[in-house]
Every structure is written in C-alpha cells, then in structure tokens.
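re: ur question from earlier - yeah i can do the single chain one, its not a big deal. heres the input i used so u can compare w yours
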Amino acid sequence: MTPMSTSASGLARPAGRLLRLLAIVLPISAIVVAFIVYYGSVASAAHDLRPPDAVTYLAAGERLNAGHALYRLSPGDRPVVLEPPYWTVPLLSPPLIAVVWRPLASLPAGAGVWVWWALSVASVAWTVVTVLLRRPLLAGPAALLLCVPIAGQLQAANLDCFILLGGVLCWSLVNRGHETAAGAIAGVLTVAKLIPAVLVVWLIASRRWDSVRAAAIAAVACMLLSMVGAGVNAWGDYFAAIRSTSMLGFTSISLAGVAARVGVPLTWAAAAPFAADVLGCGLVLILARRARASFAVAITTMVLGSPVIHFTTFPLLWPIGATLATWQRSSAVTSRIVPWSVRVSGKRT
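and the output i got, formated as tokens:
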C-alpha cells in the first residue's frame, strides 16, 4: 500500500464515522423537533396535554370497571369523541386493550394515561434507535422521511406504538433463534389488533412450527383473558363495530379511500383493504424462501390492509428496516434467516 493510499484510507475512516453519526443524530433530532411542534399544536388546539388515544383506552378501562358496555357509551361514562363514519363506537380495538387498561384506569388522578404514554414513548424510542444504530446509512433517510408520522404516533400514544415494537422484536428474535418468544409476541399482537395476524402467516410460511405453536397458545390465552375481563359478548360487539367501520368508514389515504376517489363503486372500494390482506398473505406464502422479502410484505400488508389509515400509521413500516440490521451476537455473521428448506438440507448459500 502506497503512502497516498494509506492517507486516503485514514481520511475515509473519520469521514465514514462522521457520516454514520449524522445519519443517527439528524433523524433523532428531526423526530424530537417534530414531536415538540406537533404536540404543542395539537395540545393547544384540544386544550388537553394528554395523548388522545391513551384517553380513549382509559375510558374503555373505566367502562369495564363500572360494569358498562365496552362498545357503547352509557350514562356517566367518560365522553369519547366519535367521528362518523370512520368510527361510531367509543373503541375500535379488540377487547384485550380495554382489559389491559382496567388496572391502569384504577390509578388515581388518571395516572394510567401517563404510565401508558411513558411506555409508548419508550417502545418507539427503543425501536427507532436500535435499528438506526445497526444500519444508520440505510435507516437514517427512512427515519427522516417518517419523522413527522413518528412524532404524531408519539403524541397519540396509540396501540400501534407497541405493534411497531412487536414487529421489530418478532424479526430480531427469530433471527437470534428465539422462535418461541417471537411466536408468542405475534399471537399477543394478533389478539390485540387482528391485523398483525399476517405475522403468524409469515411464521407459518417459513415453517417455524415452534413459533406457530407459541403464537396459538398466546392468542388463546389472550382471548380467554379478554373474555374474562370484558365478557364473552364483547367480541361479538367488536366484530359488529369493525364490520360497520370497514364497510362505511375509510380514510382518504387508505386503499378504499383511493379507490373511491378514482370512481370505484363504494361497495367495491370498501373491499380493497380486504383484497390487500388476501394478496399480501398470498405473497408472504409465495416468498417463504426469501425471509426478508416475505417479512417486508407481511409488514406492508399490516399497513395497507386497514380501511382506516392515518399519516401516523406509516411508522408501522419501520420494522422492514430491522431486516437490514445485524441481530446476531457476532458481528461477523450476516443478518439473515436461513430459509427452512436450506436449513433442512444442511446447505447454506
């Protein structure tokens, strides 16, 4: 190696480190600034410092604690803002979230809202920072693009904060060989919001039977817990509410909304998210041998398969970045999941 090439190499290393540092610091700074601005504007307009979705969950927990119906308001219930036709019921999530909130709703002075918010912020922060640290040059630009939606998600404290965390954990745990834990997470997320069921499809496609069994056990346990805590009829009420929402209420940026805007009849437009779910699950099965691509399709289906998509929904795409990160304990090992067929044959490509 010539002195000139040695000098150039020496200069390239600090430049590369500086670039990686900027790719980490700039997106985090952008998210923080966006959050401060967005939170300030929303809180000022609403005259309420509390995250709105956390207040919705608080109200759901309070209704259960009072022995009231979960999916309709009764006299004396905490007011909940409705927005027909997008939602005409006080809760659009399955009963499990309300059951989880029962102890939080029992805390004095509404402290459960702040506990939930702290956990939501911690979940998103860990998820974003972890992927940024592992692949800053690839994840950094994506985080910059998503800085405002991420800020909006932090402000709302929606259950999606934990879906986001669960998606990254599902991939990383499978990649580390902890398939049972990954399956359990997928099962819990499925009962909590249904649409993450596509993660279970991904586990089935890759024939990770330990994960699938764990997902089934976790899902059944969470279903039983939700029935004990909210009543058996709560699930029937939930499906009635979600059926009405999917057929009548969809946001303009959802597939149903886009289809309606271009002239597709409403009945057909409303079916677009369901079609995306079916197509997405089919692609997950077809791409089973390509773990990264299959997982990316599963995550994308989680977003596009919903009739109600807001700009704060798009951070759910972030777990795709986890497929680019190195999750093995040894940095010398490449970040990939060996397809099941390759593992069985004992060959690696």
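Residues 11-344 form one domain. not sure if urs matches, ping me
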